[in-house]
Amino acid sequence: MSTIRTGAAAARLVVESGAVYTRTGGEPFFFTSGWASPVFIDVKRLISLPEARGRLITLCLETLAETPGNDAFALVAGCELAGVPFAAMIADRLGKSLVVVRKQGKGFGRLAQFEGTFEPGERVLLVDDLATDGVSKVGFRQALERAEATVVETFVLLDYGIFPSTRRLLSLMSLADVIAAAEEAQVLDGRALDEVKAFAADAPQWSRRNGGIASLAL
User: pTM of this prediction?
Assistant: First the structure.
């Protein structure tokens, strides 16, 4: 779920930053979960662009502020690896504590899967750069719950919003926002734009036809 105004503004930043890549001939992109895609959006690129990243984080904060109940957290948790810089910037702006959630535990005890520390019962905002089907977020969320934290929300900067999903996420922008911004800026040629739109219309079938998975194996 993203808001119309902030989603469009964030998507323009992504497009203007050159973070949209397409493959319309040959092998498509393959996401970790197994989905095939003609488009890859590298939100992480913006961390190297001071002005763009500052505006992006401002939009993140506006989205969080506009969502009822999402100001009631004391800790921001960044998903290893891509979620960490965004979580750090959000935590810094809000004056909140920060931890990193590892993909796997390292060490012993309640906080073996974390860098940083927090007390049992802490209310947490979980942050990552993007989500396709949301499967990877489940593991991070479960790690926090095992460590006796309460996850009030999972927030991603980009939710593709076109795949079967394990749960609803709060997001800054969607693939539809990025497609609209790219079309307005005329940064994709006709073939690429048509292919990305076809993918967005039926991602599971597009993935299946191009060598990827067609459904989640849960």
Answer: 0.95
